Prior knowledge:
It is built from four helices and 14 strands. The chain is of the alpha+beta class. The protein has a single domain, classed as Jelly Rolls (Sandwich).
Amino acid sequence: xxxxxxxxxxxxxxxxxxxxxxxxxxxxxxxxxxxxxxxxxxxxxxxxxxxxxxxxxxxxxxxxxxxxxxxxxxxxxxxxxxxxxxxxxxxxxxxxxxxxxxxxxxxxxxxxxxxxxxxxxxxxxxxxxxxxxxxxxxxxxxxxxxxxxxxxxxxxxxxxxxxxxxxxxxxxxxxxxxxxxxxxxxxxxxxxxxxxxxxxxxxxxxxxxxxxxxxxxxxxxxxxxxxxxxxxxxxxxxxxxxxxxxxxxxxxxxxxxxxxxxxxxxxxxxxxxxxxxxxxxxxxxxxxxxxx
Length: 292
């Protein structure tokens, strides 16, 4: 099996703007989940508060979140589980789903293949968010998730392959290495509100991962919430621009010591101005398959 340990920072260096050339660490609150004997459950088809009581007990913790730009060239998907890269897109309107699928999906496929060495990339969905009181239509829109979490688990990662591929191909692919990645970028920039915090995968232990059921009307999924660990090393990239993107690993089938999960969360930077612009972003989710 071919192993790729390429840092995107090496293949596509990100220049550090003069305004943030100095280290820009912050202390901010991150919302962890208390680990108990009761399995947390989130019901995705209802807003009934009573049903949300099994979602787990929140445990806000003040954490140091380091300036990832200071070490951007040393980051890798196999070690920390995330990288920052420069990526210019031809998309004119990221809120146009048809244009995103027609233009952005092929761009992301090429980006992920270049970054990981994958032989096949399957893009299966995307989410656009406006982190503010209203969206472009003046209505409440999806906001950044302020909960330490990871989108996939040792159970739901393989299940996603079975959900997306024909049965024969799925079983064949599951015998080899595959991984799930998220590609996150600002739609407008620089990001002034609700940046994305990323946890160095080398500071995650198995005890930090709390399985959570996601109950839909037709299926039950699973994600991880994060339990507090004082040894966690958090990073973010201040003032991200529209020509920058983060790749983060949500699952890796390889059990050879490389990063398998990347806990992450939006957070409220205490240095944010009161009049800061709402954060607009798009996140694309992909599966990447590797030939033996």
